[in-house]
Specification:
Elements lengths: L1 H7 L12 H12 L6 H17 L4 H18 L3 H17 L1 H6 L13 H10 L9 H14 L3 H24 L11 H18 L7 H16 L2 H6 L1 H13 L4 H16 L6 H5 L1 H12 L8 H20 L1 H12 L4 H15 L6 H17 L5 H13 L8 H11 L8 H11 L4 H8 L8 H17 L19 H11 L9 H11 L15 H16 L8 H19 L2 H18 L3 H16 L4 H12 L6 H15 L3 H11 L1 H4 L11 H25 L8 H13 L7 H19 L11 H15 L9 H12 L8 H16 L4 H6 L4 H28 L4 H6 L2 H4 L4 H19 L13 H9 L7 H28 L14 H4 L3 H8 L5 H13 L6 H18 L6 H12 L5 H17 L1 H9 L7 H10 L3 H18 L10 H13 L6 H23 L10 E3 L8 E3 L1 H15 L3 H9 L2 H5 L5 H15 L2 H11 L8 H14 L3 H4 L6 H9 L4 H14 L11 H14 L5 H17 L7 H12 L7 H18 L6 H15 L21 H11 L1 H17 L10
Antiparallel strand pairs: 1-2
Length: 1503
């Protein structure tokens, strides 16, 4: 145990460890008790042991002993992990000294039924490779075959694989050394082959090698080596099985390296036999497929197996190609068509590797080129790098010679393009490849259109190659270069190409510079074989450097492209002039034409080509060649507009030197439009003929246009002939003139005229064909259907006329009229947008139709604008032509017409200079035309109309301001801001107000007369607008109207047609305004209408009472008529005008709006009517005469009126209108109307009516009446006197009237009482009675005068009028009440008693009662016992004091003549009224009480 102890000691070292017999024994004992030792102690012991064995030579017995101990330990303890590995390493150390000792431990008897320890197997597998192990190969292999069948676990199988791998590798090594080493091994080659074959079968049969694990990988390594040991015949038989197995392993995702290695070893082993065999050939597809998959694996340089996998697969392909050349190439090519980039890259790598090692037959080249082309066509980006490398290899093997070589070159060029996003290494590879191409070929490639994007790198290469050749003193190109145009590019094509590429000099940064530098490098002055032409050498040596400097001085943004293009064209022209070779020039022109037709897709480039053609041909002096080439370019492709414009530009450039030739060629070319015999158009299919005709037409007219633009004036001498030809083209057209042809023709012709009209020089010439062309355009417009708008023909025709307008001669007025009517008819009458859209087959077509309609309207507007610009004064007539459509019943026609009107007026209003006065001679009609549509039923028409009206107003205002400025007058600022379109919207009144100041009298009249026509419009809003317009105009300028009679009759006539209610009302208002401004002309006309009037006339008179100003004016006239006609005594014959006046007043005053006017004229109007009434009732009116009918409302008959009832009705209406309904009520209560209807009692009715007035009217009104009547109190007209005095007397009832200062009431009354006429007496007495109500207003008088009044009152006691009898009794009673009756003479008292008593039996009870009361009071006055002494004394004193009588006892006489004092009348009146103050006051109080309570009874009044 000392060994163990020593090992466990920390002081043990390698030096004190001696592998001696004793130590071995101790070691054995220690291992026997190892289970009792810690793992660390055992592990440390084994490490020290390994070191000593490796460092010391051991004797064989000792080796054997230690080996046995280690193996036994491994059997017993079955160590794992690091301990097992250390045991294995100890065995290896022992085997290095004596391999046989360790190897023989494999077949110990103990192992016959069990597997040896894995560590032992691993050690043996390693020891087999050692020197001295060869004699044990055969025996070991024999034992291993036994173990192969026993191994089941993965660790065991791996341990066995260690031994087996060592065996096969060692066996191969010895076999490779040759037969001289056979005796070293313990087995023959033949036996070894059998062992190898058996091993392969055991591995396949006993082991499950179908999953991805370490065992499978180790088995693949072993099997790969077995292929070289197995007999070829047996190996070939196993190819099918092996292939399937390998494919299975690939599906199991076994590491690619092991599979590739196995495949390679299989193919290599078979190849050693001289042929692969039938089975290998049959499995080529599968094997190559597996190899492709292996090659598709990503190569990781850091991973040795990854690198080896790729290399082994390539080696396998190489061997297969040697065995099966054609078949393998075919299979490889099949992978080229794969969509998998990885597989394609693998294929390319295989080709690259394989092709260099196989014979390059023509068949192989063709097949490889085919595969390359396929890859080029696919052009997968991950493949590009590998493919370029492959192409580089192919070029080295002369693969560009076949026809397919150009495809490869083009592909390389494509990858080298300057805008390509390829990596730098790819571009470098491309450059390397291209430099392998010859210079002529490279230049040809440079100029090929498909190589445009690679132009910069290719041209740089060519330039570099050319300059390098020149530096070496060599011609930089083949001498036959310019002589082989079929193989290489021709000089003309080269020049054209490089000039074209210089067009965009900064394209890709260097296009222009590269082109010019290449051109410069290819043409040295001393060249014996110039590429272009020797004559241009010196020119280019000067010009090209200048052009390059120009490009250097600018950038893409700063360079003027047009200037640069001109420089290129100049350079080309100078070059061609230097060449001076028509033959060479002809070839150049053909090249340009060819490029135009086939090679130019860039629009800008193609446009330049046409210019290049023109400049080229312009340099020629050969007229025949010019003609030929012009004819040729006219025959070129012209489907696109750019092509047609290019042809036109080319012809215009040529025309600058060959104008006549160019025009002749155009005319000759145009024959195909009209000549059926020679036209090529008719040779086309019919459906293409119209299209081609239009294209040819377009070319011709574009050419004319361009020639006109470029011409310096010479072309204008030919223009009239050209215009004549233009018309002939259409009129003599050889194909059917369908819609499309018309459009093509119009489009082309319009462009020509636009250019012509834009030339200032054109206005110096006259074009007689203009009128005919305009007429032709109108024909086209008329041909268009009015029920649809399927084409833009009418629009384009109008556009044409618009653009043609400036040329002389200008359009005459008659022609303008016809033109406008034609265009209006064609456009405005089209169906509505909604109807047009309904006819459309799709929403897109509907939208297109709507857009076309709007564009057509815009064209019409532009045409109108141009006509107005030519003749501004004609705007009025232009608008008047719209009248028929503005008044159309179709909404869409009105709307379009108003849109035109608004826009054209707006256009005119925007002029800044109104130096040319625009006269609107029919302004009234124009305003009426527009204003009526401000209330159109269609809202948009209202809006447009307001715009039109406002624009017209602006025109008038601006003209007015201009005129005032010319006159130096001050202009009111801000006036233009008063009105706007919004103000005029739906506001006819504001329109009339705005325009009122601009109308002349005649325009005003025409406006009203034309507006009247609109009153009967079927649309209510339009008729209302007409009425409102008339109304507003009459309000603003009604006094300036002329033709009043015509207007009145027109309005009345239309009112009779039962207008729409609102229109009727507004028309009435217009008539009211007219009457208010022209009363003396309108009113007599209406009064002269036959009575009774119809409803219209009655409504007019009622309307006159709705406006204060008109009402006052009309009432004044009517009052004047009544006053004038009744100012003198008339004959008994009936006059109807005053009767008509009352009828008019009946209607006027029946409304509620005339109160203010009636109040203003109230007294005068009332007196005039009452006077007329008095006149009427005395006339001999025919029985049942009806002069007026009043409508009593729905369901009731009208009420007829005769002259008298009509006058009475007016009286009532006067009071009602003046807001004195109380007077009417009072008159009704007192039956005034009956009294007023009787000539006999008329004055009594006036008295009662006046009482009502006094009771209900303000004092001011009473005084106004008083002021009126006092002037006619003594009129010569009896009727007037009666009316005035009756009013006068009864007005005194009111205190304010009786108190009027300066009025001789009493004097007048006394005079009337003294007149012989009984009515006058009664009126006077009534006045005195009313005056007596206010005694404070008079003075005193003698007692005899009192008696005189009492005596006069006795006469009234017998009056048939009850109110006079009653008044007389009251007067007597009040008078005697103030007298001291006991001092009156008895005879006089008796006379009073008798006079009063005579009425005791009066038929009126109230008078009887009054008589009784008066007599009773008289008795009391005669016997005053009941009166206190104080009161009587006072009264007596007052009476005598007033009368001047002395207080004597002598009784006085009342009724005898006494001498009057010589006082003047005034003093007498004052004295008498002072004396009668008391009685009159009492009488007034009594009368007031009686008026309030007592009704009037005709013929028997109690008053």
């Amino acid at each position: 145990m000392s060994f163990v102890v020593m090992v466990g000691s920390s002081e043990i070292t390698d030096r004190n460890l001696d592998v001696s017999e004793k130590n071995i024994k101790d070691f054995m004992e220690a291992l026997q008790v190892a289970g009792q030792l810690s793992a660390d102690n055992v592990l440390q012991t084994l490490k020290l042991l390994k070191v000593k064995i490796l460092n010391n030579k051991m004797a064989t017995p000792r080796c054997q002993k230690v080996t046995d101990i280690i193996v036994d330990y491994m059997k017993t303890m079955k160590p794992e992990g690091e301990l097992e590995e250390l045991c294995t390493e100890v065995l290896l150390a022992l085997g290095f000294q004596s391999p046989g000792i360790v190897i023989f431990k494999l077949w110990d008897r103990w192992h016959l039924n069990n597997l040896p320890p894995n560590g032992l197997l691993v050690a043996v597998g390693r020891l087999i490779f050692c020197q001295g192990a060869d004699p044990y190969i055969g025996v070991t292999w024999e034992y291993i075959l036994h173990l192969l069948r026993m191994a089941q676990k993965e660790d065991d199988m791996l341990a066995v694989c260690h031994v087996l791998k060592g065996l096969v590798i060692s066996a191969r090594k010895h076999l490779d050394l040759g037969t001289k080493n056979d005796e070293i091994m313990d087995i023959t080659q033949e036996a070894l082959s059998i062992k190898a074959y058996l091993t392969l079968r055991v591995l396949f049969n006993r082991w499950s090698l179908r999953s991805n694990n370490k065992v499978t990988e180790e088995a693949l390594v072993i099997i790969g080596h077995l292929f070289f040991l197995i007999p070829p015949s047996k190996l070939k038989n196993q190819v099918n099985r092996l292939t399937r197995w390998l494919m299975t392993l690939m599906s199991a995702k076994v590491a690619p390296f092991y599979i590739s290695q196995c495949i390679f070893q299989l193919i290599d082993a078979l190849a050693l036999s001289g042929c692969g065999g039938i089975n290998l050939e049959s499995q080529l597809g599968n094997i190559i497929g597996m190899l492709f998959k292996q090659l598709s694996e990503t190569v990781e340089d850091s991973n040795h197996h990854s690198v080896q996998n790729h290399s082994l697969a390539l080696k396998a392909f190489y061997i297969l190609t040697k065995l099966y050349n054609d078949r393998v190439v075919t299979l490889i090519r099949e992978n080229v068509e794969s969509k998998d980039p990885a597989k394609i890259v693998s294929t390319i790598q295989i080709f690259t590797d394989v092709l260099q090692k196989v014979p390059q037959t023509e068949q192989l080249k063709n097949e490889v080129m085919h595969s390359v082309i396929i890859m080029i066509q696919e052009d997968l980006k991950p493949v590009q790098r590998a493919l370029l490398n492959f192409i580089e290899m192919l070029i080295q093997h002369d693969y560009l010679a076949p026809p397919q070589g150009s495809i490869i070159i083009n592909y390389v060029i494509k990858l080298s393009e300057s805008d390509c996003s390829n990596e730098e290494d790819i571009q470098l590879t491309c450059s390397k490849i291209l430099q392998m191409v010859t210079l002529p070929k490279l230049i040809t490639l440079v100029c090929q259109p498909r190589n445009t994007l690679a132009f910069v790198p290719l041209s740089k290469m060519a330039t570099k190659m050319a300059l390098r050749a020149r530096s070496l003193g060599q011609v930089p190109y083949l001498s036959s270069f310019h002589l082989r145009p079929t193989q290489f590019i021709s000089p003309q094509k080269l020049l054209t190409h490089l000039v074209m590429f210089s067009l965009k000099p900064y394209r890709e940064g260097e296009f222009g510079v590269s082109s010019l530098r290449l051109l410069y490098a290819l043409h040295p002055i001393t060249s014996l074989h110039p590429v272009i032409n020797s004559n241009v050498g010196q020119l280019w040596m000067t010009e090209i450097p200048q052009m390059l400097q120009m490009l250097d001085d600018h950038t893409e943004k700063s360079l003027n492209q047009e200037e640069w293009e001109g420089r290129l064209l100049q350079f080309s022209s100078q070059s061609l002039l230097a060449i001076d070779d028509d033959s060479w020039l002809e070839q150049l022109i053909k090249v340009v034409l060819e490029r135009i037709n086939y090679f130019s897709d860039d629009d800008e480039e193609k446009a330049f080509l046409y210019k290049f053609f023109g400049f080229t041909l312009r340099t020629s002096r050969n007229i025949k060649m010019v003609q030929m080439m012009l004819s040729a370019i006219l025959q070129t492709v012209h489907e696109e507009l750019q092509e047609r414009e290019g042809i036109a530009v080319a012809l215009s450039i040529v025309s600058m030197k060959h104008l006549k030739v160019t025009l002749d060629q155009l005319q000759a070319y145009s024959a195909i439009l009209t000549d059926k015999n020679s036209s090529s158009i008719l040779k086309l299919m019919k459906e293409h003929q119209q299209r081609e005709w239009g294209l040819v037409c377009n070319i011709i007219y574009l050419s004319y246009s361009k020639i006109i633009s470029e011409s310096k004036g010479a072309i204008f001498m030919h223009l009239d002939d050209i215009l004549a030809i233009v018309l002939q083209h259409y009129r003599n057209c050889i194909v059917e003139k369908d819609k499309n042809l018309k459009l093509e023709y119009l489009d082309a012709l319009t462009k020509l005229i636009n250019i012509l009209s834009s030339q200032p020089m054109a206005f110096q010439f006259k074009f007689p064909q203009k009128i005919e062309i305009v007429t032709f355009m109108m024909e086209l417009i008329r041909e268009e259907p009015l029920n649809s708008i399927s084409s833009s023909i009418r629009q384009r025709a109008m556009n044409f006329i618009t653009n043609f307008r400036k040329l002389h001669p200008l359009t005459e007025v008659e022609e303008r009229t016809e033109l406008l009517q034609t265009c209006f008819q064609s456009v405005l009458c089209l169906p509505s947008t909604e109807d047009l859209q309904k006819e459309a087959s799709s929403s897109q077509e509907a939208q297109a139709t709507e857009d076309l309609l709007m564009e057509t309207l815009q064209s019409l507007l532009r045409l109108m604008e141009t006509l107005i610009v030519e003749m501004p004064s004609q705007i009025q007539y232009c608008l008047e032509h719209l009248n028929i459509w503005l008044n159309s019943q179709n909404d869409n026609e009105r709307e379009r017409a108003m849109w035109c009107a608004a826009r054209i007026l707006g256009f005119t209003a925007k002029w800044n200079n109104f130096g040319v006065e625009i006269k609107f001679s029919r302004l009234g009609c124009l305003v009426r035309l527009l204003a009526m549509r401000c209330q159109d039923p269609v809202d948009n028409i209202c809006f447009l109309s307001s715009q039109a009206v406002y624009n017209l107003y602006r025109i008038l205002l601006l003209q007015k301001q201009m005129q005032r400025k010319k006159q130096g007058l001050w202009e009111e600022e801000g006036k233009s801001e008063v009105y706007s379109a919004n103000v005029f919207y739906n506001n006819t009144f504001e329109i009339a107000k705005a325009f009122a100041e601009y109308f002349t009298e005649m325009q005003l009249t025409h406006l009203v007369l034309t507006a009247m026509e609109g009153l009967t419009d079927s649309k209510a809003t339009v008729s209302l607008a007409a009425a409102q317009l008339m109304s507003a105009v009459m309000k603003e300028r009604g006094r300036d109207m002329i033709k009043i009679e015509e207007i009145v009759e027109g309005i009345v006539g239309r009112l009779n047609l039962q207008l729409e209610p609102n229109t009727q009302e507004e028309t009435m208002r217009a008539m009211c305004l007219l009457a208010g401004n022209n009363t003396h002309r309108v009113v007599p006309m209406l009064l002269n209408k036959t009575l009774p009037w119809d409803r219209t006339n009655l409504a007019l008179w009622k309307a006159f009472g709705t406006r204060r100003e008109t009402t006052i004016s009309v009432l004044q006239l009517l009052i004047g008529i009544l006053e004038k006609l009744h100012s003198r005594e008339e004959s008994r014959e009936m006059a109807f005008q005053p009767v008509a006046v009352t009828c008019a007043l009946c209607e006027m005053l029946s409304g509620s709006l005339c109160q203010e006017a009636v109040q203003e004229l109230y007294p005068r109007l009332l007196l005039a009517i009452l006077h007329h009434l008095y006149w009427v009732i005395e006339q001999n009116v025919p029985q049942k005469m009806v002069v007026y009918n009043r409508e009593e409302g729905p369901g009731h008959k009208s009420k007829p009126f005769d002259p008298t009832s009509c006058a009475l009705e007016v009286v009532k209406l006067v009071f009602m209108a003046a807001a004195y309904e109380g007077v009417v009520v009072y008159a009704n209560q007192h039956h005034c109307w009956d009294l007023l209807s009787s000539p006999k009692f008329y004055y009594i009715g006036i008295m009662d009516l006046t009482s009502g007035i006094v009771k209900n009217c303000e004092p001011a009104i009473l005084h106004r009446i008083l002021n009126l009547i006092r002037n006619i109190l003594y009129s010569s007209n009896y009727h007037r006197r009666i009316l005035a005095r009756t009013f006068y007397a009864q007005l005194l009832w009111h205190r304010s009237v009786a108190q009027t200062v300066g009025q001789d009431f009493l004097g007048n009354l006394i005079k009337w009482t003294n007149e012989p006429n009984i009515i006058m007496k009664e009126v006077g007495l009534r006045g005195i009675s009313n005056l007596a109500l206010h005694p404070g207003q008079v003075g005193t008088k003698k007692i005899q005068l009192v008696g005189e009044f009492l005596s006069q009152s006795f006469d009234f006691l017998t009056s048939p009028q009850s109110f006079l009898r009653e008044a007389a009794i009251n007067f007597i009673g009040l008078t005697i009440k103030r007298l001291t009756m006991k001092r009156i003479h008895e005879d006089d008292v008796e006379l009073l008693q008798n006079a009063i008593g005579s009425l005791r039996n009066d038929p009126v009870e109230s008078i009887q009662s009054l008589v009784t009361t008066t007599l009773k009071n008289l008795d009391e006055y005669l016997n005053p016992e009941s009166i206190s002494a104080t009161r009587m004394s006072q009264l007596s004193n007052n009476i005598f004091k007033v009368t001047g009588m002395k207080t004597s006892e002598r009784k006085k006489r009342l009724f005898k003549t006494v001498k009057q004092e010589r006082d003047d009348d005034d003093n007498q009146k004052k004295n008498i009224w002072n004396w009668l103050r008391g009685p009159l006051n009492s009488l007034g109080n009594w009368h007031n009480r009686r008026v309030k309570t007592t009704p009037l009874i005709i013929g028997n009044s109690d008053k």
